[in-house]
Amino acid sequence: MTDKHQVRLWTLHPKYLDPQGLVALWREALLAKAVLLRETRGYRHHPQLVRFQAHAAPGSAINAYLAAIHDEAGARGYSFDRTKIAPRRNVAHIAVTDSQVACEWAHLMDKLQSRSPAVFESWQGAIQPELHPLFSLRRGPVEDWERMHHPPASTR
Questions:
Q1: What's the structural domain count of the chain?
Q2: Residue 3 forms part of a structural domain
Q3: Are 59 and 36 in contact (CB under 8 A)?
């Protein structure tokens, strides 16, 4: 299954995204927030929402996720609407596996290589990509909710 038209809530730090990816992530995370707050009927069973739904405070977790995207946008001089997210709160991290991160990294590098070669060049040498601040790393296989399976970036 390709995720060309599927929402991707990246576990990777948003700094790695090209402009199109960062804007798409903002929109997709706002949609995820609406789902978690039951403000929309669509998209409720998207597999990547499982980790937010399992969080002790799903609304706070998605707001923390959005806040980091907003911070990255601001650092780039973009003006994403801060009023769309609640005030920042400390929330528990969401654990993610090293294999999941490798899968996402390979997927992102594929996207960047074709869509934004200059951004791809700037990040292709990264050995251990940084995570979005909401996540913490643990060892393990690709997450059960993942629909894209790429070989680990280290085999590229």
A1: 1
A2: no
A3: yes
